């Protein structure tokens, strides 16, 4: 009898899963009224540029034809998310010129971390930690609600979300990679496993805080393969030195760095599962960006890209690192770190960030739910629970 039950379960389970997928595809999409994003430079649409120094050409050259505060030649994944959901590009929260927040706001800032770091902006740090970003959101929600009800003119209301829009918004997250990079830099001086657990705990507390503020739909990206960033690869960091066996994988990615990202991702997923059980009125979708990005890196040539270790904009040779758009004297010669002829053939824009072409490729594959848990397209992500 037990064998028959197991056999029936084995036969019917795929059918049930298939039915569930068909029901999802045929059901009505979520009626999201706004989009709020939290993150680092992977999704910063102008925060750091507005707060400190604006980007310079050739940043922004492909789509915007001018620098627009994005660490890419064009659009970021968050831009493709906004377009996919029918929203305009998100304005950075602190950008006061030419902004509209009617359909949401972007609190992401370049170099941001989940935990506070002992670094200044000039040392590659950011004052806009995840905790600060959620507090900015709290202030944004309170102040827009206060003035929205007092405003008599439509001019104000055209530029800000309605109080009821916050509960019907989708909240997206792409942060943690800089925390992992900081932990990598301190390997040997602290317990990396404990640090990663602490980082994930910090993340969970901020998600809980946003839930208290009324957020109900969460779309959470894990960390990408940090060991596959070209500036991390030995080919750009050593002079004719061959790495030891096992140091890199078949794509030239640094194994121990990717292993730390994988550990972070595993703990992040476990945290998401716990929050699902805690918040029965919320939807939390975990998105495996690591797998999506690594698939592109692994299949680069097949997908029409050059070798994933190549960098479109910048000078990274013989141990010298001159980042995109800058000039310097190297070995008695003035070098300008300009752009390649065709960014659409490159995965890496500046050695750290992705090109618009790569961002589009990744977005096209993750927005349909292929890398999500549960496997929901973003348009149906309010139905995760």
From TrEMBL:
* Record-level Gene Ontology MF annotations: hydrolase activity, acting on ester bonds
Write the record's keywords in alphabetical order, separated by commas. Answer: Glycoprotein, Hydrolase, Signal
What CDD domains does UniProt report for this protein, alphabetically?
A: SGNH_plant_lipase_like
Q: Which Pfam families match?
A: Lipase_GDSL
Ribonucleoprotein is among the record's keywords: no
Keyword Ribonucleoprotein in the entry? The reply is no
Instruction: Identify the stretch annotated as signal peptide in this record.
Output: 1-21
What family does the database annotate?
A: Belongs to the 'GDSL' lipolytic enzyme family.
**Protein name in UniProt:** Uncharacterized protein
Q: Please spell out the taxonomic lineage of the organism that makes this protein.
A: Eukaryota, Viridiplantae, Streptophyta, Embryophyta, Tracheophyta
């Amino acid at each position: 009898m037990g064998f028959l039950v197991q056999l029936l379960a084995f036969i019917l389970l795929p059918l049930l899963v298939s039915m569930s997928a068909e029901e999802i595809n045929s059901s009505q999409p979520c009626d999201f009224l706004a989009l709020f994003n939290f993150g680092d430079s992977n999704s910063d649409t102008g925060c750091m540029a507005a707060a400190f120094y604006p980007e310079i050409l050739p940043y922004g050259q492909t789509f915007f034809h001018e620098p627009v505060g994005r660490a890419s030649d064009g659009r970021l994944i968050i831009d493709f998310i906004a377009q996919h959901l029918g929203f305009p590009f998100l304005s950075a929260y602190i950008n006061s010129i030419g902004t509209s927040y009617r359909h949401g706001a972007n609190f992401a800032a370049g170099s941001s971390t989940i935990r506070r770091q002992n670094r200044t902006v000039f040392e590659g740090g950011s004052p806009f930690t995840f905790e600060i970003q959620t507090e900015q959101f709290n202030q944004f929600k309170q102040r827009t609600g206060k003035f929205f009800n007092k405003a008599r003119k439509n001019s104000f209301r055209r530029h800000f979300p309605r109080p009821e829009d916050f509960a019907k918004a989708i909240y997206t997250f792409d942060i943690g990679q800089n925390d992992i990079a900081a932990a990598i830099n301190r390997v040997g001086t602290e317990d990396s496993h404990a640090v990663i657990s602490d980082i994930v705990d910090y993340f969970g507390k901020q998600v809980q805080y946003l839930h208290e503020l009324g957020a109900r739909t969460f779309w959470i990206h894990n960390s990408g393969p940090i060991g596959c960033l070209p500036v991390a690869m030995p080919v750009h960091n050593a002079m004719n030195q061959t790495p030891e066996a096992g140091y890199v994988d078949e794509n030239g990615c640094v194994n121990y760095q990717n292993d730390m990202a994988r550990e972070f991702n595993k703990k992040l997923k476990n945290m998401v599962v716990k929050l699902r059980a805690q918040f029965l009125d919320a939807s939390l979708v975990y998105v495996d960006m690591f797998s999506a990005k690594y698939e592109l890196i692994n299949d680069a040539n097949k997908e029409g890209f050059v070798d994933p270790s190549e960098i479109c904009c910048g000078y990274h040779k013989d141990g010298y690192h001159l980042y995109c758009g800058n000039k310097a004297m190297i070995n008695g010669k003035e070098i300008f770190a300009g752009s390649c002829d065709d960014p659409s053939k490159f995965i890496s824009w500046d050695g750290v960030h992705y090109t618009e072409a790569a961002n589009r490729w990744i977005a096209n594959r993750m927005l349909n739910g292929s890398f999500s848990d549960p496997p929901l397209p973003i348009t149906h992500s309010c139905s995760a629970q």
